[in-house]
Amino acid sequence: MGKTVTCQRLAILLDERRRADPGRAISLCLDLRNVTGLDRGVPRLLAILEECMGRGWAGAEDCGFAAF
To answer: Which of 22, 29, 35, 49 has the most CB atoms less than 10 A away?
Structure first.
């Protein structure tokens, strides 16, 4: 099992636990393949989040749970 599948399974597990206990933090699944401009260096976290969110959240088909 690779890194992507492992992360997707972890996101599913965390989401199931949150459904049972809404006090838990929300897990996010970001597709880092959407990050561009890496030839100019590693972007800051805010830039990564904005770009991934702007290009679309990973939905149920990618992470196993419904998008918010």
So the answer is: 29
27 phi and psi, to 5 degrees? -90, 145
Q: Cα(63)–Cα(5) distance, rounded to whole angstroms?
A: 9
This prediction has a pTM of 0.58
Write out pLDDT tens, residues 1-34.
Answer: 788 888 889 989 999 999 999 999 988 888 888 7
Q: How far apart are CA 4 and CA 1, in angstroms?
A: 8
CB 32 within 8 Å of CB 38: no
- Which pLDDT score is estimated for 58? 52
